[in-house]
Amino acid sequence: MNVYDAERMADILAPVGYVLTDTPDDADLVILNTCHIREKAAEKVYSDLGRVRRIKSARVETEPMMIAVAGCVAQAEGEEILKRAPYVDMVFGPQTYHRLPEMVARAHRLAGAVLETDFPVESKFDFLPQPSAKGRTSAFLTVQEGCDKFCTFCVVPYTRGAEFSRPVDQVISEARGLAAAGVREITLLGQNVNNYHGNTGGCADWSLGRLIAELGDINGLDRIRYTTSYPADVDKALIAAHRDVPALMPYLHLPVQSGSDRVLKAMNRRHTADDYRRLVANLRAARPDLALSTDLIVGFPGESDRDFQDTMDLVAEIGFVGAYSFKYSPRPGTPAAIMESQVDEAVKKNRLAALQELLSLQQSKFNSACVGNELDVLLDGHGRHSGQLIGRSPFMQAVHVSAPSDLIGSIVTLRIDEAHPNSLAASVPEKWKTQRAIA
Ligand code: 5AD
Ligand code: SF4
């Protein structure tokens, strides 16, 4: 979502004359778009700021530079950032960046810094221009934001605010615009994307399943994905979309966090490990080739060896083909941060290593099983070697192939020859065909 937000910031600043630079050295404005989810990400802001400050200092005599801190660290720490880094000119949260042109003008006028961390009444999406998507094959599209779930470890409900769904018309027109600009794949974004309730202006809101069915009919939009989902909010319409919408890719990121019911309860997750198992079974009944990835936290307060083993067992049983796994990181203001029985750092480290070993084994197994098969690959750029293109399989695997550049932007059926830990090597079959050619 931060990638999407950063692109939208560039879009809204374009009419007032800003263009993207490759390095901060010659920038007139540097925006650090920040993440507050774990301590490491939040602390990085200050080291990055130190680096940008040195560039700013060197430029005072020539062309002055402005520094802005955006995103969730800005939202959570606001004033604190200005105290720790008084050379910062603007601090604004993730819900106010549509005001950027006005904020920039104000920062130029003012002697002091601009601080915008209130949650505005208006929706930023009503003020943002259609995203520029030229030259893109794949794009993000935020349809939902915020979270009302309050998992006890998580800062998102405090930094992104309450759940909000963009109206259906707005989403469809943005998707059509992307498809018209040549985008073949969109990933629908939201912290709780599957709790999407889009206003249609009529009597009933649309669910995510309904929205996906509609987007699946847009010409040129061959691939649809969505992330991130909350297991307890997966409804029948969404499961049906996995069965009925061919553009919906057979790869789903579905965070489970832990395999232990005791831990899930302490996390306030509102689902048990068995609820999750049942849900996966229903999804697989709808789409038998569905591959799953997840998010996992180890060392949540009170997590015992037995609880951790439950997580390992669930991971093996579901057979996740990918995952983001983290050591629990206490976040200020969240209930878990002040729970007793915080887990020792060394224990967290060992558990994370064991979990990641299992996960990478499963990923390798999945990649190896693809060798000899044909997969549809959306080619989206040049690889590291000359003549090499890279793309993504339906299961999000990175695929390399030697093929002509004019295939970039096409979905090509390739033969998978080799599996590497994080990618696949493929070749063009004798009689390859693009989906474009079929259409
Ligand atoms: N510590 C560790 N991981 C966390 N996540 C969220 N908050 C924390 C935390 N305090 C992880 C969860 C979530 C992902 C985006 O980040 O797994 O799904
Ligand atoms: Fe955070 Fe996701 Fe839980 Fe919301 S549902 S509080 S975003 S982990």
What descriptors fit this protein?
439 residues; alpha/beta; pyruvate-formate lyase- activating enzyme; four-stranded parallel sheet; 14 helices; 35% helix; 20% strand; binds 5'-deoxyadenosine; binds iron/sulfur cluster
Q: Care to give the gist of this entry?
A:
The chain has 14 helices and 17 strands.
Runs with pLDDT <50, length 5+? none
| Biggest beta-sheet profile | 5 strands, mixed, barrel
Write down the Rg: 23 Å
**CATH level 3 topology of the largest domain:** pyruvate-formate lyase- activating enzyme
Name the CATH homologous superfamily of the largest domain: tm_1862 like domain
Q: Outline, from the CA principal axes?
A: globular
Tell me the structural class.
alpha/beta
Q: What is the CATH C-level name of the largest domain?
A: Alpha Beta
Q: Number of DSSP helices?
A: 14
Order of strands in the sheet with most strands? 13-14-15-17-16
| Overall mean pLDDT | 94
Helical content stands at 25-40%
End-to-end Cα distance: 32 Å
CATH architecture of the largest domain: Alpha-Beta Horseshoe
Named once each, the bound ligands are: 5'-deoxyadenosine, iron/sulfur cluster
Q: Please give the domain count.
A: 3
- Tally of extended strands? 17
Strand content: 15-25%
